[in-house]
Design goal:
The complex is a heterodimer of chains A (about 600) and B (about 130). Chain A has about 600 residues and is α/β, with parallel strands linked by helices. Chain A contains 25 helices and 22 strands. In chain A, the strands form six sheets. Chain A has a six-stranded parallel β-sheet with strand order 5-4-3-6-7-8, sandwiched between helices. A six-stranded parallel β-sheet of chain A has the order 11-10-9-12-13-14, with helices on both faces. The longest helix of chain A is centred in the first third of the chain and has 30 residues. Chain A is flat. Chain A starts with a helix and ends with a helix. Chain B is mainly alpha-helical. Chain B has one domain. Helices cover about 80% and strands about 0% of the residues of chain B. In chain B, helix 2 packs antiparallel against helix 3. The longest helix of chain B is centred in the last third of the chain and has 34 residues. Chain B is elongated. In chain B, about 35% of the residues are buried. The chains are: A alpha/beta (about 600), B mainly alpha (about 130).
């Protein structure tokens, strides 16, 4: 039913919303520095080249001046062409012989001198050229120029990712799967080399540079109109703050998402525009609360946040009441303690440093020391959190706690990516990997705004409702999450539907039918319906709408389903004949000529 | 006195004078145009070109452009000369000589521009 050509045509000529030009041009001092280096190289090649030219000139001239003999022994002088030819093959050590006539002793003597001279000249010139090519500064300049050119040629909207650590890498993978473009800056050249090795669908320009210099951000496309956002994801709060400041001051119109572990830095960031600050410890605490109250909601959230291709996380069963023991009262421990107490749970903190001494009901000591956990009441505890900033300590804490009480629910914090197999082996019930938390959070905010609204809506719902949604999704996609996409029923994105929507009575169930056979449902589940309206946040939201919901023009839908369902739905939105079949079950001709002949309007 | 400037001025001027020396005389008479002079002009022009590498100013860029033009013209002249004397059956005729000399005349134009630029640069430097 659907006509691929029409789809193609529509995509090619559909009008795009106009993007606003940046207010300021950032001076690109960095790229000027790069061209300066190349000029420097040219300058350095002056002496070797002149030496080569002079040696060549002298030896060629000498060969034309020295008298020789032809085959019959008559006096003969070599012309310039012969001399140049002989010198060329002699200098490059090819050596065709004595051309055109056998040389006299005079000529041979001169040639002997010339051979040594020219070989030295060539060796010097080629040696200096190779040395220059190997030089670090020159290679960096070339890489910078290459990078600048690649970024400037990017016509599609792209994101600027600062910091390509574990968070950056996870996020880049998910964004790449969504078909988004991005540019990466990292201080570590090893990470940028990894960027080439990680196979992305799109070409990803990467630069080794300190993001604290706004010039580097400018080179990476901060002031290009196609830059659609900045992500500051380094593991250093101060560096992230510098990026937030630069982005807010130079491009106030750009959305900025950043990670910050300390609340003070987060406050300082919020002084610059409206950046979205993600604190992994804070988010983990929130997630833990959701997990305690509604395991299925937590399962649904983590699954959707992991992005397309993610497998369904197991549904945990954390104890919703009882005694909890938390080891480590740092930034993470504090957040978790607050969140657990807010849930009405009884919490005991174990912390070796003097922080704990000021705390009334904290136990001072290392959790793995004999007796300390016993004093904290581990035997009758329901849950245990190993939350220090040292993976070795956390692992021994888990072992000690398990030995004392094998039925514990154990949550742990993993600090280094390298420790992942160890934590997997001890089978922790709930893991905090700060890098993963940030990556999933940022992904949820970036993938589509509707997804973010959906995820914020989930904790407010019942656990049974979330379990039903998970059930529908697993029935549709299996254990692995398929495509997640957004559909806007506007005049530009769904021109074929406008008349039907305006009539009223446009049921969602009628829209989500298969254009090949309308009795079959489309393999997609609507997660959210957003309607521009009078609501407080400018829109009414319906979570997981059912088939009988009536659609209106300009509604936005968030769907999860097979990638093929997305293509089929696109056809319904764009092609009149497909819409006619899917919605009403009528077959109408799709070509203009045939429509005129049969006098049936589409 | 800057030695770099002396060397630079020397080669730019020397390229122009050698080129002029080869160019002057009856355009078709091979006896009036010495091949050694053409050879020297090519070599000195190449050296002048290399000396102009890596100058980032506007005037430096024009300098390099004029030198590249002169090189092209002179190398073309040398090629025509070589073809006429070694390959062509008739040898170095009046016509062949005329085309060699006229090519070097084009190079002379570029060299004159180069010298003018050098003078302009020097004069403007004095006024600063």
């Amino acid at each position: 039913m659907s006509n691929p050509l029409l789809l193609f045509w529509y995509r090619l000529f559909a009008t795009e919303p106009v993007r606003r030009a940046p207010r300021w041009r950032v001076p690109m001092s960095t790229s000027r520095k790069a061209s300066a280096t190349i000029f420097l190289v040219m300058r350095r090649m002056r002496v070797p080249l002149i030496v080569l030219i002079v040696i060549f000139a002298i030896s060629t001239l000498g060969l034309t001046l020295i008298p020789g003999q032809d085959a019959e022994g008559r006096p003969w002088r070599m012309g310039f062409f012969d001399a140049f030819y002989v010198m060329s093959f002699t200098a490059s050590t090819i050596g065709f012989g004595e051309i055109p006539y056998a040389f006299t002793y005079n000529q041979r003597m001169w040639l002997t001198i010339s051979i040594y001279l020219t070989v030295v000249g060539w060796a010097y010139a080629i040696g200096s050229l190779l040395a220059l090519l190997q030089e670090r500064g020159f290679r960096q300049a070339l890489a910078l120029q290459h990078f600048t050119r690649k970024v400037e040629r990017m016509r599609e909207p792209f994101l600027l990712i600062v910091g390509y650590g574990r968070t950056g890498e996870l996020l880049a993978r998910s964004l790449d799967a969504l078909g988004r473009r991005f540019v990466v800056i990292d201080r570590d050249d090893g990470r940028i080399d990894d960027l080439d090795l990680d196979s992305y669908h799109a070409d990803v320009p990467g630069l080794v540079a300190d993001a604290g210099d706004p010039g580097h951000l400018a080179v990476a496309g901060l002031d290009l109109p196609s830059c659609e956002g900045v992500l500051a994801l380094t593991d250093d709060d101060e560096a992230n703050l510098a990026v937030v400041q630069a982005a807010a001051l130079l491009r106030p119109d750009l959305p900025v998402i950043t990670r910050a572990v300390s609340p003070t830095t987060a406050e300082r960031m919020r002084a610059f525009g409206t950046p979205t600050v993600v604190n992994p410890f804070d988010r983990f605490g929130d997630h833990l609360r959701v997990a305690l109250r509604a395991p299925a909601s937590y399962q649904l959230m983590t699954w959707l946040e992991s992005g397309p291709g993610a497998s369904l996380p197991p549904r945990g069963s954390p104890p919703s009441h009882g005694h909890w023991v938390i080891c480590g009262y740092g930034r993470f421990g504090r957040e978790v303690t607050q969140d657990l107490r807010a849930e009405g749970l009884d919490v005991t903190v174990v912390e070796p440093s003097d922080v704990a001494e000021h705390h009334p009901d904290a136990i001072v000591g290392y959790g793995y020391e004999p007796g300390v956990l016993g004093r904290a009441g581990i035997e009758h505890a329901a849950g245990f959190v190993a939350g220090t900033d040292n993976d070795t300590t956390n692992l021994s804490l888990i072992a000690a706690a398990r030995r004392a009480n094998p039925t514990l629910f154990v949550a742990a914090r993993q600090n280094k990516a390298a420790s992942a197999p160890l934590f997997a082996a001890v089978e922790v019930d709930s893991m905090l990997v700060p890098a993963d938390v940030v990556a999933h959070e940022v992904y949820a905010q970036l993938s589509t705004p509707l997804m973010w609204r959906f995820l914020q809506e989930v904790p407010r719902r019942e656990d049974a409702w979330a379990a039903a949604v998970v059930g529908r999704l697993t029935q549709l996609c299996g254990e692995h999450l398929q495509a997640v996409w957004k559909v806007r029923l506007t005049a530009t994105e769904a021109p074929a539907l406008q008349a039907w929507l305006a009539e009223g009575g446009a049921r969602l169930g009628d829209l989500l039918r298969n254009p090949d056979d309308r009795d079959e449902p489309l393999h997609a589940v609507p997660l959210l319906l957003a309607r521009a309206g009078e609501g407080d946040n400018g829109a009414d939201v319906e979570v997981a709408p059912d088939d009988d919901v009536v659609l209106a023009p300009d509604d936005e839908l968030l769907l999860v389903g097979w990638p093929s369902a997305r293509r089929l739905l696109d056809a319904t939105l764009l092609v009149d004949a497909t819409r006619e079949y899917v919605v009403h079950g009528r077959h109408v001709p799709s070509s203009w000529v045939w429509r005129k002949l049969t006098r049936r309007p589409a | 006195m800057n030695l770099e400037k002396v060397v630079f001025g020397f080669f730019v001027l020397f390229a122009a004078t050698l080129n002029f020396g080869f160019f002057i005389g009856d355009i078709g008479d091979p006896a009036l145009h010495n091949s050694y002079e053409l050879y020297a002009a090519v070599v000195v022009n190449l050296i002048a070109t290399v000396l102009k590498f890596g100058d980032r100013t506007q005037i430096g860029a024009v300098h390099l452009a004029t030198s590249l033009v002169a090189d092209l013209q002179l190398i073309a002249a040398a090629l025509v000369w070589g073809f006429a004397s070694y390959v062509a059956a008739e040898g170095l005729t009046r016509e062949a000589t005329a085309s060699v000399v006229s090519l070097s005349g084009g190079a002379l134009m570029a060299n004159i521009v180069s010298v003018v630029l050098l003078v302009v640069e020097t004069v403007s430097f004095q006024r600063r």
